[in-house]
Amino acid sequence: MKANYHTHTARCGHAEGTDEQYIAAAIERGFDVFGFSDHMPWPYESGFVNSHVRMAIDQMDEYIATMCELKKKYADKIKLLVGFECEYFPQYMNWLAETKEAKKLDYLIFGCHYEGSDETGRYFGGAKTAEDLIRYVDSAVKGIETGLFAYMAHPDLFMRRYPVFDANCRAAAKDICQCCKENNLPMEINLHDRYRLGGLNGNGYPNADFFEIAYDTGNQVIIGLDAHEPQEIANPKEYDRAEKEAARFGDRWLRSLDLG
C-alpha cells in the first residue's frame, strides 16, 4: 500500500497546478490512496480572508464537490479522499467537528501553524525563542487532545526558523511526542520543506533530532508529501529517501491510515 494524505490545491493561494495534474502524478508514481487536504477555510467572525494561505469559506463546497466528482472519475485507477489540514483555533473547534460530520469529510489532519487564529496570532514556523516553543507546545497539545485529527502534520514545524536544536527544542519535542503517543496520534515525516530547503541535512523539517525523540518515545509515523505542486509528487527522490528513513520504525511506520 502506498498512500499520501497531504496534498494542497491552487485554491489556497500558494500552490500550483490543477487538481487532475496532482492525480495524474499520483497515478504515475503508483499511489494506491491519495488524499487532498487543502488548508481549512474558517468562518472568521470579522470576514477576514487570508487569500495567500487558504481558500475563502465560500469556496469550500466547490472544493468538496469537485473532489467527489474526481473520486468517481478515477475510481478504477486510484482511491481519492477529501479532507482538510486544520489548525487548533479554539473558537472554531465545535464548528470544525460539525463541518466534518455535515460535509462527510474523509479525514482532517492537524497542522499547528498559528496561535489562536491566523488573523491575529503568531506563526509558529517563525519560532526563534524559548517562549515561542512554549506557546507552540501549548497549542499543539490542545489540538491533539481534541481527537478530531487523523495525524499531526509536520510536528517539528517550529524548527523551520529556529537556529539550532537546543535543550528548549528537546523539551518541546518530548512534550509533543508524549502527547501524540498518549492520544494514539501518528506524526508526519513531512517532505515539503526538505524538497525546497533540505530538511534533515539543512534548514526546515523534517528534523533528525526531533524524530530521534519520536523513535525513542515509541511514536507512530507516516510520510506526507505536503505537495504544493505536481512535481513534488512526480519526483520520486525524496519519497524514496523518506521510506528508507521511516523503515527503522518497523510496524510503527504506517503506510496507510485506518479511517474507519
Key attributes of the depicted protein:
globular; 260 residues; 9 helices; 4-stranded parallel beta sheet; alpha/beta
Topology (SSEs and partners):
Elements: E1 3-4, H1 19-28, E2 33-39, H2 60-73, E3 79-86, H3 93-102, E4 107-110, H4 130-144, H5 167-182, E5 187-190, H6 192-197, H7 208-217, E6 221-224, H8 231-234, H9 237-246
Parallel strand pairs: 1-2, 2-3, 3-4, 5-6
Helix pairs in contact: 4-5, 5-7
Residue runs with pLDDT of under 50 for 5 or more positions? 195-201
Question: Kindly state the mean pLDDT as a whole number?
Answer: 94
CA distance, first residue to last residue: 17 Å
Number of strands: 6
Task: Tell me the helix content.
Answer: 25-40%
Helical/strand content category: alpha/beta
Strand content: 5-15%
Q: Describe the biggest sheet?
A: 4 strands, parallel
Number of helices: 9
Shape: globular
Along the chain, the helix and strand elements come as EHEHEHEHHEHHEHH
Which value, in Å, is the CA radius of gyration? 17 Å
Strand arrangement within the widest β-sheet reads: 1-2-3-4
